[in-house]
Specification:
Order of helices and strands: HHHEEEEEHEE
Shape: globular
Bound molecules: zinc ion
Structural class: alpha+beta
Mean pLDDT: 78
Largest sheet: 3 strands, antiparallel
Radius of gyration: 19 Å
Low-confidence stretches: 1-43, 229-250
Helix content: 10-25%
């Protein structure tokens, strides 16, 4: 998978009409027509960024046609606004030590946006499991794991998090003595990683705890992010204040 920096670069450098549907390195080639190039200068990459955030990974790597995109918006957006899930990594103290965003890596090494993040109905049981959608990945539920600086954290078996299976049980692929990933890495809150939980909650559940929910937004895989420091700068600049400082909405 590419780094967040790469994603951003791709989005930024993209000035064409096709970006409105999605541009990625592995997408089928797009033939420019003169009109598209003209319109591109007025549409610019701002529209492209907006649409990338709405579609997320839902086009499965194939570009939506304009009709498919309209259909997608009609079907998915009302659902998304109603069933938005907030994802955070919670300390036993009740503090959200990490707000999971679209690019945040799961234990399975895939990003939050690569998991199933739009549910047609909110299940009754808790926790809510958000499985990975990457083909062949055995991850059944998004599970945040912190980094130690830029390094994966270590299990008590001494192997790194990403050396473990993403299948339930999280056993180690590098040794036979591991009974499942368990890390004593200490979070900034003072509690060990293993004592934290990945919390997946509805807006109502967040509000009941007095936690921020921000504004309703149409973007895919927003996870726990609730605020924008600058909408035009894209979600790399999202903050966790719950306040849209520019007051632009969407
Ligand atoms: Zn996963
Ligand atoms: Zn995965
Ligand atoms: Zn282990
Ligand atoms: Zn091991
Ligand atoms: Zn913590």
């Amino acid at each position: 998978m590419g780094s967040p920096g790469e994603d951003r670069q791709r989005t930024r450098s993209c000035g064409g009409r096709m970006c409105v549907y999605k541009q990625r390195g592995d997408a089928p080639g797009f033939a420019w027509d003169a009109g598209a190039r003209d319109r591109a200068s007025s549409v610019g990459s701002w529209a492209a960024r907006m649409t990338l955030r709405i579609v997320g990974e839902d086009d499965g790597g194939k570009l939506f046609t304009p009709e498919e995109y309209e259909e997608y918006k009609r079907k998915v957006l009302p659902l998304r606004l109603q069933n938005r899930l907030f994802v955070s990594w919670r300390s036993p103290t009740g503090m959200d030590c990490k707000l999971v965003g679209p690019e945040t890596l799961c234990f399975c090494t895939h990003r939050y946006k690569q998991h199933k993040t739009d549910l047609e109905t909110i299940p009754q049981q808790r926790p809510i499991d958000l499985p990975c959608r990457v083909t062949g990945c055995q991850c059944r539920a998004y599970h945040y794991v912190p980094l130690n600086g830029t390094q994966p954290i270590r299990c008590r078996c001494k192997h790194f998090a990403d050396q473990h299976s993403a299948a339930p049980g999280f056993t180690c692929n590098a040794c036979s003595k591991c009974s499942g990933f368990h890390s004593c890495f200490t979070c900034a809150c003072g509690q060990p990683a293993y004592a934290h939980d990945t919390a997946v909650e509805t807006k109502q559940e967040r509000l009941a705890q007095g936690k921020p929910v921000g504004q309703d937004v149409p973007y895919a895989a927003m996870g726990g992010l609730t605020g924008f420091s600058s909408l035009a700068e894209g979600y790399m600049r999202l903050d966790d204040s719950g306040i849209d400082k520019n007051g632009k909405g969407w």
